[in-house]
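Notes, p. 3: input format for complexes.
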Amino acid sequence: LALHTELPGAIADGQLRVHYQPLVTAGTHRVVGVEALVRWQHPERGLLGPGAFVPLAERSQTIVGLTRFVLREAVAQCAAWRADGHDVGVSVNLSAAVLGEPTLVQTVRDVLAEHRLERGTLTLEVTESALLDDPCGAAAVLAALRAAGARVSLDDFGTGYTSLTMLRQLEADELKIDRSFVAAAPHAPTDAAIVRALVDLAHRLSMEVVAEGVEDARTADLVRGLGADVLQGFHFSRPVPAAEVFTGALASA
Ligand code: G
Ligand code: G
Ligand code: NA
Ligand code: MN
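Output follows (253 residues plus manganese (II) ion):
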């Protein structure tokens, strides 16, 4: 059986899992959020990463159900952490294919209301390539998602082709600098200059800046110095099951 034909049944059957990767403040490395990253606990093939099946889901309507599952799971988990005294938010990835889905905004409204999550606690990550498909439509959807109480983050920023045009057309709360620039910054003055410039640009547009792909202490210190507000990467934690997020070395805000 091909993975793409199995996936809808697997979602219904409860085979998807959500892992979480911490986001920490640049200064003191307190956990202020987590990014939800989907996995598939496949009965024969073992634990599959998103690269193995998210692209398949994106080629069919399956991505709609997958996204709804991850949103519900992540928001419920975030609400549980907050009830336990952890002042954290949660970030969920949205594919281009769901941005055009008429039910998306209502789903977000419903899930936030169901778990009584405060405005600004859920962040929705979109990539430039997702926005490229239909920039005007995307701007309207992002505005509606923000009106519903979610934050919007521009993921993998700097790798698309029309970054600056995007910034003129839509309002976002957060910019995630692509990990290719972050990882290279300690070794290449050009990359460090690009990180600095993206930070300044984002701050002037009142956006918070996340540096992703921080793999060592030297990179963490450098991008903090370049002005990043929040850091994410293997140096702090890999994506882990919910139960492991607050049991390691990292403390929450
Ligand atoms: O963990 P890995 O490096 O394989 O992740 C690859 C990609 O899968 C990342 O770009 C990430 O944004 C994407 N991804 C992970 N979880 C989800 C999800 O729930 N929905 C969507 N649309 N993409 C996801
Ligand atoms: O495209 P997106 O930014 O959503 O991708 C998130 C992916 O990045 C996850 O699959 C996660 O495993 C991966 N990731 C997170 N931190 C690091 C890191 O420090 N280094 C590398 N190479 N990948 C990372
Ligand atoms: Na992301
Ligand atoms: Mn990214």
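Residues 35, 93, 125, 155 surround sodium ion (ligand 3) (CB under 6 Å).
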